[in-house]
Amino acid sequence: MTPAVALRRAAPTDALPAADVWLRSFAAALPGVVRAHSDDEVRDWFRAVVVPRQETWVAEAADGAGLVGVMVLDEGELSQLYLAPDWRGRGLGDRFVALAKERRPRGLDLWTFQVNTPAHRFYERHGFVAVEWTDGSANEEREPDVRYVWRPDRAGTDRTAAES
Hints:
Blueprint: E1 5-9, H1 15-29, H2 39-53, E2 55-61, E3 66-74, E4 77-83, H3 92-103, E5 108-113, H4 117-125, E6 129-133, E7 145-150
Antiparallel strand pairs: 1-2, 2-3, 3-4, 5-7, 6-7
Helix pairs in contact: 1-2
């Protein structure tokens, strides 16, 4: 049985645990991608920029496991969505995407690396459509990426990839 998980806005004290979720998730999901920043730089970025300046949400497990996910909305961009590796496949990402759509009902954009095919399937399942592929020259990792877009239709429901 999956323990209960609460989604809530991040507090300043969540910055370091959220950064640690990000670091563990990145390492597990993208082992071939060379990060542009050290662990300490990522932690500093979460403490000084992400949590205080962006709409940051965390997933906290009720079983005492602490933070197990982080999502960051920056204007109309879903800029970060990372889950602790052992929490993938439990519906937590689905809950975060539903929350993101609720918070940004006019639509969302996001970027993911081209090598992250599980992320492509995940976002496409949630109605996101790939609209741009790059060689990675514009991101810090210099890793080819793809931009996804989700826009609700006029009735307020999700557009599927086939309809877009």
